[in-house]
Amino acid sequence: MRVKRIDQIEDFIIRNKFVTINELCEEFNISKNTVRRDIDFLTKIGTVKKVYGGVTINNILPDPLTLSSFQERQIINEDLKIMVAKEASKYINDGDIIFIDTGTTTANIIDYLEGIKDLTIITNSVIVLYKSLFYPNINVVSLPGVLKRVTASIVGSSALQYIKDYNINKAFMACTGMSTKVGITNSTHEEFKIKKAIIEKSQCNFLLLDKTKLGKTALLTYCQASDLDYIIMDSVPSNEYIEYFEENKATLVVAKNL
């Protein structure tokens, strides 16, 4: 019950940009002490920050509307992204039911699945859907919703309902940034909800990223390293992150050169 309320409070703050403690008390019919505890939790994970007179969203990264387009991001570190995706494809087997997240790295996984039999992919990535057209061995399930062009993704509450109905044994996720302080983060609220739901539903979670995302924090934390089974990177990270992964029992995999 508390988790659901915190999510609702988070949504309310993001929609309104700034709210007072009294407004939260009235909106959710809870005491000031309860509001303060929930705000403390959201502050710790980096979603919001306390300011004079109330609380506001923690705009650590620029507003999602200023994000580069998918096409612009796709050409940045392209070789490294392909290398990481190819490594991730080695963990996909015949008969798997997998989720492939939106992202310029995860979309490349499709290019290495030609020989896999009876594979089902669930996705909200427009690019993954398009690439799958050329692989008849892949069964594809598209999440329903609204097209978000800047991320080439399908988002919305209907997608969240859809996720509940499916079994997923492996999820291949992307992120905007990773920090040892706040975890794995994303810039857009619509995608954050889907990512969070997938992490909770999947039996085995993979995170694909390159070293440029380490130490960066976006607006919303959708999971912690402890929620991940494998972290696939383009190169060996610093000792700080190696220890962080080990403490959270997440296996680091370094992709080999193409």
Characterization of the model:
A hairpin with a 3-residue loop joins strand 10 (177-179) and strand 11. It contains nine helices and 15 strands. It is globular. The strands form four sheets. A seven-stranded parallel β-sheet has the order 6-5-4-9-12-14-15, with helices on both faces. Strands 1-3-2 form a three-stranded antiparallel β-sheet. It is 35% helix and 22% strand.
| Shape designation | globular
Helix content: 25-40%
**Continuous helix count:** 9
Mean pLDDT: 87
DSSP strand (E) fraction?
Answer: 15-25%
- Overall structural class, as computed from helix and strand content, comes to alpha/beta
Sheet of most strands: 7 strands, parallel
Low-confidence region ranges? 60-75
Termini gap: 48 Å
Q: Kindly report the oligomeric state of this protein.
A: single chain
Q: Would you list the SSEs in sequence order as H and E?
A: HEHHEEHHEEHEEEHEEEHEEEHE
**What is the CA-atom radius of gyration, in angstroms?**
19 Å
* Largest sheet: spatial strand order: 6-5-4-9-12-14-15
Tell me the total number of β-strands. 15
In short:
The protein has about 260 residues and is of the alpha/beta class.
